[in-house]
Specification:
InterPro entries: Enolase (IPR000941), Enolase-like_C_sf (IPR036849), Enolase-like_N (IPR029017), Enolase_C (IPR020810), Enolase_CS (IPR020809), Enolase_N (IPR020811). This is Enolase. The protein is an alpha/beta fold and 416 residues long. The protein has 2 domains: 114 residues, Enolase-like, domain 1 (2-Layer Sandwich); 278 residues, Enolase-like C-terminal domain (TIM Barrel, Alpha-Beta Barrel), CATH 3.20.20.120. Helix content is 40%, strand content 18%. The chain is built from 14 helices and 16 strands. The strands form 4 sheets. It has an 8-stranded mixed beta barrel, surrounded by 6 helices. Strands 1-2-3 form a 3-stranded antiparallel β-sheet. Helix 3 runs antiparallel to helix 4, helix 10 runs parallel beside helix 12 and helix 13 runs parallel beside helix 14. The structure holds phosphoenolpyruvate (PEP) and magnesium ion.
Length: 416
Amino acid sequence: MTLISSIALRRVLDSRGNATVEADVLTESGGFGRAAAPSGASTGEHEAIELPAGEAIAAAREHAVPRLVGEVYAGNQRAVDAALQAADGTGNFSEIGANSAVAISMAAAKAGADVLGAPLYQHLGGTFRGESFPVPLGNVVGGGEHAKEATHIQEFLAAPVGAPSVSEAVFANAAVHARISELLDDRGIPAAKGDEGAWAPPISDAEAFAVVGEAVDDVASDLGFEIRFGLDMAAAELYDSEADAYVYGDQTRSTAEQVDYVAEMVDEYDLVYVEDPLDENDYEGFAELTERVGGGASAPGASGRGPRADRTLICGDDLFVTNVDRLRDGIDAGAGNAILIKPNQIGTLSDAFDAIELATENGYETVVSHRSGETEDATIAHLAVATDAGFIKTGTVGGERTAKLNELVRIADDAV
Ligand SMILES: C=C(OP(=O)(O)O)C(=O)O
Ligand SMILES: [Mg+2]
């Protein structure tokens, strides 16, 4: 029933105005799925390879489409993704492009769900998936590679860990974003927005900590539930390998000083989450910081969403790049206690699932994530719900971000 009968690929716009790949997958029985690839700016050096959209489309038409059409069932995600891997043949999608691969992989999943008449999260997660919803991490202030002349730290992320529902959590993050605008206004600080819709004010990291901390406290007391915050430091972008130091404008920090700095910020601001606090190849630094503030991984299979009170999540994004081999190295080294999951970093949903499974088995929290360049595609909302991810990082405002957030609200409302 779900035999793939055609695949169409086209160039569409992403949120930065760049071209990206959109895929339509049609099945013999009329099932239809459409998905588009996102794109990073602060990409990890070990990610699967994104090709210029036109090249990726041409290569996928030549190598992947003939292996899928009339050959593979869209409902068999493992077979779809194995065909994509075989068509590429490089192990990192440098032949057909991870952008073509992930668009086809996600579109096939949607076509499979369409034939079944099931919501995508149920097709991916099965009928016995858990009942929980991810806590949305909302980027409210940022800089780094996502906005020039703003903070050195790439993302300050509101985390409404005490919200009674995913809907209230989504609205809490929007309220923190709005409160920050008022606080910046009071201080006479103008703020444009960065690539993900976070405020990008020309302030120091220290001032951003103070503003975000105040906004989070104000909104928490208005709404009556706990809201904390976290960071994506995207430290590979700060790290200068020649100097062996992290460069924050005029100030530099050695690795030891970077670990101290992050540990101090965790203590001072009770941070719930720190992503990429160290360079993307520094397993040892990650392990040292995890030992200091991470409180170890949870017991495998430990239940309970949201943070354990005695630990801060130390999350690998550029470190792990959604790759099971790199995650295995991290588990062996004790590096981090959480992994960011970005399907386009690895190229297929099956590979992303494998990373989630390995993480969960080893007590690592999973955080499903958007990219800074996005489209209206909402697949990651379904992926997060399907896999009982503890968190989802998908921005706060802006149409390509609210596409995912509103989909979470609809899933919770049984309206998909
Ligand atoms: C979402 C992120 O940014 P990008 O997509 O630019 O890698 C990130 O670093 O987590
Ligand atoms: Mg990151």
